[in-house]
Amino acid sequence: MLKKILFLVGIMLLLAGCNTKDFSFSGNSDHWHAELNVNQSSDFEKKDFVLKYKGKDIDSVGDVAYDVEEVGGFGRTGVTLEENGVIRDSSESNPTNAKMSEDTEVKVTVKWDDQEETFTLAKD
């Protein structure tokens, strides 16, 4: 009987550790649309970021730099848009105590062709 109870407790702990939480943020500026999708569990956090240029002349944009301010924060410089005007970034980490939450404020700054725009992403 004790073995069955220990087995059930072990299974419950294992399943509790496997629970994942998904949430996303999105927002717009005059020239850009951004989405940040977050998938996390107790021992990992994956972030998928998409930045899309809303204009028509993609070739005129040149190199892009962006900075995403949130709990961990990330960004890149010298990035070129894909043919469809998109930049994609993905990261996976094992955060100890600096995890994003659904209430995290996410701010995006984009710099390109001597221009700069900053905007906030809202939870979807």
UniProtKB/TrEMBL annotation:
Q: Which domain of life is it from?
A: Bacteria
Q: What is this protein called?
A: Lipoprotein
Report keywords, A-Z. Signal
What does the organism's lineage look like at the top?
Bacteria, Bacillati, Bacillota, Bacilli, Bacillales
Signal peptide residues on this chain, from the entry's feature table: 1-20
Q: Does the keyword Signal apply?
A: yes
Signal among keywords: yes
